[in-house]
Amino acid sequence: MKRYLTFAIMCALVSCGKPAGDQNPFFSEWDTPFGTPPFDEIEVHHFKPAFEQGMLLQRAEIDSITTNPEPPSFDNVILAYDRSGRLYGTVGRVFSTLTSADTNDELEAIKAEMSPLQSAHSDAIALDSLLFEKVRTVYDGRYRAGMNAAQLRLTERVYKRFVRSGALLSETEKQELRLINEQLSSLSVRFDANNREAVNSYELVIPQRDGTDLPTNVVSRAKVRAEELGHRDSLVFTLSKPSWIPFLTYSGNERHRRAIYEAYLGQCAEGGSQDNTQIINDIVRLRTRKAHLLGYKTFADFVLDERMAKTPGRVYEFLDDLWEPSLAKATEERDALLQLKRSETNDSTAVLHSWDWWYYAEKERQQRYNFDEEQARPYFALENVRTGIFTLCNRLYGITFRPIKAPVYHKDVVTYEVLDTDNRHLGVIYMDFFPRAGKGAGAWCSSLRSQGYDAQGAKIHPITTITCNFTEPVDNTPSLLTLDETETFFHEFGHAIHNLFADVPYEGLLGVERDFVELPSQIMENWAFQPALLAEYALHYRSGDVIPESTLQRMRQSAMFNQGFMTTELLAASLSDMDIHSMREYQPFNVAEFEKDALTTRRGLIPEIEPRYHYPYFSHIFDGGYAAGYYSYIWAEVLDKDAFEAFVESGDIFNRRVANDFRFKVLAPRGIRDGMDLFRDFRGSEPSREALLKGRGLLPPEPAEYSGFIVAPVPDGPVPSPPDSVLRQILGEGPLVQ
Ligand SMILES: [Zn+2]
Predict the structure, then answer these.
(1) Alpha-carbon distance 509 to 694, whole Å?
(2) 203 a catalytic residue
(3) pTM
(4) Ligand 1 is a single-atom ion; what residues have CB below 5 A from it?
(5) First vs last Cα of the chain: how many Å apart?
């Protein structure tokens, strides 16, 4: 747990001649519950020296590998390398937790300052030829060295990582790659800063009388926001999702809808004050060059070489297969909404616009199914949903959750100890639910400490965090979640469970393919709205009554509604991500035109639907490690729907035996084997797309016959950028962030 820090750091402090009384908490043992970070003691000025010390230490550890006179072996090269950089990793995890969930100008300044240094540090290790020679010697002799499967796997992974980081390049090429990585790292920081600035600088201020068609909780929040900003008798809406989506869904004022949606779509676009288009050009140019240097045709080829999908061809084949039925369905939906708008406005020539879609879709949903999501909300109080998730985890895996008092970085954060079936400590989970200035948009799961084993063989227990931007409590009303938010909570909890169940002998085996990583999260969504679970947690926050069967019935019926739209906007973003990373030769390009050509001209995207993200604010792919990887969400949906079928087929969706299998065959082994091998082990075969198509209503039989109740998953918002560490990758491109 906390032991691993002490010895190495004390040595380093002595060797660096630092005063023994240094108060930097990163340089001493943490006397906190379960070794959680002492957030109450960590101050902004501690980070820089801690990062510097962490890098220095890791450098020293690497040097002791390269200068070791003993013949290279698994233990003195691969294992020593795997164990290096513990302090550096710890500082990075704490730091990225803060910069993503509770940042400020000072932290951002440190991030901008450290980012190129971290890149340079990672590169110096990745391109250290003495180290690579040792790694190569162990790799070449791996079959003769009597390694076990995990050692063999780790050796191969480490070797490949070096090669992918440029270890086989000439000195000149290595120099160029270093420069590229540093530039890329700075560019992604600038991309992110622009993005935040754009979100923070926009507000739609409307008079309170214009908000009469909005649900009361939406109005309450908008009022609070207006008061904070000093606007009297007004409502304020912003570009954060919990603000603009309800506004677009319920506001009957087309002019206002258009204003906020155009502001959203136009974030960081060309010509604005946070223009990201040149940054995107630079990123694509550098990524393409990087791919060429490393021997790949395109950046997508480079990325996918390490994914389940393996090649861009397979990804395109997968996405193209889904594109046509989704677009056809979306076009049908569009026609119905257009008719509705014409009849509602008494204007037979009215045109449906993208800013109309949410509004008329909601009207149509209410007319067709008499289901207003707002009616369901009182049954999804945050506390109750949390109980539902704890109950589910308990029924599936026998684990329990105990609130603990650990230091937190913000008063809203709550912490729990997670106990295994036999009441043994499994790990700690932090939960941080509500939006605030300084928190990135969306929802994510990350790690404050990853699972491992120390040099004495004692298990290091994981500390994981989930961070969301859920509807806040207002006045006397607790936080009442939308169905999307409820599902997001289940989703992020799935990632957390994946972290908590991890049991691998070496840290370098924690990483799973990025197109696998959404399986553990998305499978959890399948339980969110199962009647058997709802009966236990979906209780009215005032009366305590269980959600009525009639509401459930309508929820179920309306679940397939709007799936054409939801699938199409998701596929559109997945395709535009693939396209921009599939350039063989970089030529300066106009970002908006490139996207239009890819989606509208070549694939026939209808103008009423915008891709889920436009490039200038598509932080997943320019700032969050999802480059050529956004398809992973829908790819993983094939896996999760098929895996959930195992529970359905058993006749009991809480089947303990199947859950145990899932835990020990899929979750716990993490990167010990390829994702597809783990999946096959669990399911007995590769996944079939049928469950996904059925789940999204894109394939007969009729949705009503389908036993599962499934709402389309909502991919997380921007993924916080991890500290750049080419070597300590946990998830493909970035450590510890999902
Ligand atoms: Zn996720």
Answers:
(1) 34
(2) no
(3) 0.81
(4) 521, 716
(5) 22
